[in-house]
Write a structure and sequence with these properties.
alpha+beta; four-stranded mixed sheet; 20% helix; 22% strand
Length: 331
């Protein structure tokens, strides 16, 4: 007899030794047993279904089980499906925006939205060089259909603003346009500084939705990349448009499924919230674009600026200063 640990064919320390006279079943035998087991389960389920239909248990449970046994898996209704759908692809194309790019006063920002899986730097995102890209997310609800167009920029720079709290620079910038289609028509709202431009400015407590036509013109601010349907007051009240650098027509946008992006496992700047982590991803009617769906403190600061600055005021018929009205809010 050999001792454990000695040379030879004896078991090593920790090895389980089969009982005397037993042997391990062969792989072929295991396969036959598995096939037999699966066949047995299938026959059992079929028998149960037959018995159920015979009246042993409530009929509706029997019907449900019978349908489940023969039902094919439901097709996946994801964003790739939407972009290939004969119903939704025309709508997605119809309301894709025309981007109007603001000229940067410092001449440093000429970016268009790009695909972060292939471009994470300003050099590859330049207008006239890069392929403009929008990531589409479709949300279907009983009362409306929502189409979100998300735009990625490699950086954000807002140092030209008069409010210090809104100045700064960070890597990775996600902005977007959300379109709502309902029985009354088409409505839109664009992201800006954690809020939305809709019927009113992004700092309004109820910016709402704006009625839009196909291929709405979306003005993209230089630096911040905030969006608006109007060329003025994008970043702050009184913030003038610095001129147009160029445009990206809706037909030039390459449309990609947004729900494929999480699989890329890209890391983004902590100052940035990826679209699928925003509350607006599942609830487009929230007031802000944060993970919680709330607006940040910048909205309150910008609202204070609009109320107190000369640029943020208008005169009423009697010459008295009054706060600018956000306008009628679309339902």
């Amino acid at each position: 007899m050999r001792r454990h640990g000695s040379s030879g064919t004896g078991p090593t320390v920790g090895q389980v030794v089969p009982a005397s006279g037993s042997r391990r079943p062969s792989r072929g035998q295991g396969t036959v047993e598995h096939v037999a087991l699966a066949a047995g389960v299938a026959l059992l389920m079929a028998g149960v279904a037959v018995g159920l239909r015979a009246g042993d248990v409530p009929r509706r449970f029997a019907d449900a089980l019978g349908e489940a046994l023969g039902r094919r898996p439901a097709p996946l209704r994801d964003d790739s499906w939407a972009l290939g759908s004969s119903t939704y692809r025309p709508l997605i194309r119809r309301y894709a925006p025309r981007l109007v790019l603001e000229r940067d006063v410092w001449g440093t920002d000429d970016a268009v939205p790009v695909d972060p899986r292939s471009c994470r730097a300003a050099a590859c995102a330049r207008h006239g060089v890069a392929t403009p890209t929008a990531f589409v997310h479709l949300k279907r609800l009983p009362h409306a259909t929502y189409i979100a167009y998300w735009f990625y920029y490699p950086h954000s720079q807002t140092s030209h603003l008069p409010l210090a709290a809104l100045r700064g620079r960070h890597r990775d910038d996600w902005e977007g346009l959300i379109v709502r289609l309902d029985a009354r028509g088409a409505w839109g709202r664009a992201t800006a500084h954690g809020g939305f431009h809709g019927a009113g400015p992004w700092w309004s407590e109820a910016s709402g939705w704006r009625a839009i036509a196909p291929h709405p013109a979306l003005h993209r601010a230089a630096g911040s990349h905030a969006g608006s349907f109007d060329p003025g007051d994008i970043d702050l009240a009184g913030d003038d448009w610095n001129g147009t650098l160029g445009t990206v027509e809706a037909r030039e946008l390459r449309l990609e499924p947004a729900d494929r992006l999480p699989a890329a496992r890209l890391r983004y700047d902590p100052e940035t919230t990826a679209p699928w982590r925003k509350r607006a991803w599942v609830d487009a009617d929230v007031p802000g674009t944060s993970a919680s769906g709330q607006r940040g403190r910048n909205a309150r600061l910008a609202a204070g600026w609009a109320a107190t600055s000369t640029a943020g005021r208008r005169r009423d018929a009697h010459g008295n200063a009054a706060r600018a009205s956000p306008g009628e809010v679309g339902g």
